[in-house]
Design brief:
The chain has 136 residues and is of the alpha+beta class. The chain contains 3 helices and 8 strands, in the order E-E-H-H-E-E-E-E-E-E-H.
Length: 136
Amino acid sequence: MTAPWTCPECNRQFTRKNQRHACGTGDRADVLRNRPPEVVALYAALEAFARSLGPVELVTRERYVLFRSTRIFADAVILSDAVRLAIHLPRRAEHELFVKVGSDRKQVTHVAKLRALEELEAMKPFLREAHEFSVR
């Protein structure tokens, strides 16, 4: 494995030299501003679980959050009534909560629209698998 590259501007580490990125990781408060308490609680539970998987960097922009180990393993869009969660797996998976599944040459992205903590619970095994895939 090659040594990580560190951006001289923001000090973030990447697996590829001169990785294209926006410097900085954003502000969590901006993503959650003016969202209902239920959505904030759901996002907080998602973030806590992601952090429990190991070192995870959160990159926020407007209403988007990227969950990154050595690469992005999931991303969330904070909506007014839900959290749209995209999970990047090495395989196609089936679950009734997945509203969209798409693939490229490296991964299969599974999208779920979460409105309740019980739905997040159902996604945790997929998030764990995506995190493990991202650190291989």
